[in-house]
Amino acid sequence: MKSNAPGQLLGYTIQFPRALYHLLRSGPGDAVCVEVRGDVATLKPDGGVITEEDKSSIVGNPLTDKSTDLWKTFSNWIKAITSRNLGVGKTKFILYCNQSGRSGIVDKFSSARNQKEAQSAIDDAKKVLNDIKKDHDIWEYYDLVVNQNESLLVKVVERFELQIGSDTGYDNVRYEIRRKHVPVSQIEFLMDQISGWLQKVITEKIAARELAIISWEKFDQQFLVLFNRARCRELVDFTLQYPLKDEDIQSQVKVRPVYLKQLDVIGTTDDDILEAVSDFLRADVNRERWIESGIIDEDIASDFETKLNNFWKNQRIRIDITEKSLSEEDKGQLLFRDCKSRAETIRDMSPPCSTIAGTYHALTNKPVLGWHPNWEKLFPKQKED
Question: Which residues form the ABC-three component systems C-terminal domain (predicted)?
Fold first, then answer.
């Protein structure tokens, strides 16, 4: 493989996240295209165009004052205007680069906001490059842009913007997805899904010799499907919508279910009891709602309980070996607090804080595990009829 092949590959593939970025920023009636009006472009319903050229590097800034990438880009824009493929008055010109570097000509061009500032930036560029010879790599582009079409270049520079992004271009995508009110924990899932869809659509269009144009409406339809799927993946704390009732808590305290009796025999405090009731009820509500909403199923819930059970077994053995001098009650207290502070995930997501402790209480309520070393004798499992 040639030494510059990885950089060339990055140059092609970076168009996908850039197209996704523009789709996320587009609106009804817009369309985003790849390799139609530049590397990536947004077509507006009123005929306006945002055309973008993408330059990338894996080693450094590809847009130095004498870089071919810089002057070839402006040369291509000038040619597109003179051939009437672009209307300079209705076009915004973007040059995207995945690496930053020392401020130079391209930065001055980008800072220009009117004709006077654009002309000043071009004059500065002439001074910097006044020693360019005709055998230089950039000469044919520089000559066309500055010497032959300076008045047109002024109009382009007025409408020009340099954008600096991340190495792969996906940081900008993450930011735009977050702006859509997507939970932080689901950004990667949604980005991966929508990126895969977009790449497939573009590749299929190119293979079929069609223009790779994606309408906002088609993108929005797919985005909403994946957005709703991402929301279903989120372990929403439904108890925030359905607060616990004080009478339900007091009823548990009064009835004293097995999980509370298990805490009583190891000498926990009244505060521990109230916290246990809250965790138990919250975990029960969330588990039921998650299953109803399709966020998890019984198999996932069972797998989560198995993970907690395995941790309990290991901690119980460890305490028996290392804490021989402790009383049975203290061993139970230590085991209980180790387990309730356990960090565990459900489908690679962290559940609400009450979930782990509440699930442990549900398991001790059956009971399939316990805190006291002799819990099985103290709380024998009832035989089913």
Answer: 260-378
Say how far apart CA 161 and CA 152 lie, in whole Å. 16
The answer to whether residues 225 and 243 belong to one domain is no
In a domain, residue 60? The reply is: yes
Per-residue pLDDT tens digits for 274-333: 999 999 999 999 999 888 877 888 999 999 999 999 999 999 999 999 999 999 999 999
pLDDT given for residue 236 in this prediction: 77
What is the Cα Rg of the chain in Å? Answer: 32
Q: Flag residues of the chain having pLDDT under 50.
A: 1-3, 385
Count of residues in the chain: 385
Residues 73, 147: Cα–Cα separation, whole Å: 16
Q: What are the DSSP calls for 184-233, one per residue?
A: GGGHHHHHHHHHHHHHHHHHHHHHTT--EEEEHHHHHHHHHHHHHHHHHH
Residue-range definition of the domain harbouring residue 352: 238-378
d(CA 314, CA 335): 10
